[in-house]
Amino acid sequence: MFYIASLKSKRIIYALLVLVVIALGILSRKVTVIPLIVGDILYAVMMFLLIKFLLIQLRYWKVALISLSVCYFIEISQLYHASWIVQIRNTTIGALVLGHGFLWSDMIAYTVGTAIVYFITLCSSRFLSN
């Protein structure tokens, strides 16, 4: 019973963290002094937290691998310009989720963001479990 409650509380924490990171990501696009790469780093952080929320029992390195793969896939998909996906990208939510143009710097940002959240999560879980 305690184990199930523990999983629920972890899911709640990850859900709240996802919301906070989304808010920070949107804020990073609104404040002009914040470099654009910060939003891309936060996108990768959000993806990691979202995957962990969905697959709560999965090991952190697997979550990192899946979330980084999703980020890479979405970025690479920006090279595809069929009219239907361009129409989706021209909506606010489509632009936020799918982006607009492929950039190598985004791939670097996703790698950095995933590495940061992976090591923070790994270290905090070890600290909290002791």
What does this protein look like?
It comes from Pedobacter hiemivivus. InterPro entries: DUF2809. The chain crosses the membrane at residues 12-28, 34-56, 63-87, 107-128. This is DUF2809 domain-containing protein. Keywords: Membrane, Transmembrane, Transmembrane helix. This protein has one domain (2-129). α1 runs antiparallel to α2 (36-54), α2 (36-54) packs across α3 (60-77) and α2 crosses α6 (104-129). The longest helix has 29 residues, at 2-30. Helices cover 82% and strands 0% of the residues. It is mainly α.
Number of domains: 1
Specify the structural class: mainly alpha
Could you state the order of secondary-structure elements as H and E?
Answer: HHHHHH
Q: Roughly what fraction of the amino acids lie in strands? A: under 5%
- Number of strand segments: 0
Sequence stretches where pLDDT stays below 50 over 5 or more residues: none
Q: Sheet with the most strands?
A: none
Radius of gyration: 16 Å
Q: Helix tally?
A: 6
Tell me, briefly, the overall form: globular
Q: How many angstroms separate the termini?
A: 21 Å
Helix content: over 70%
Protein name: DUF2809 domain-containing protein
Pfam family, one: DUF2809
InterPro entries: DUF2809 (IPR021257)
Keywords: Membrane, Transmembrane, Transmembrane helix
Give a quick summary of the entry.
This protein is mostly helical and 130 residues long. The protein contains 6 helices and no strands.
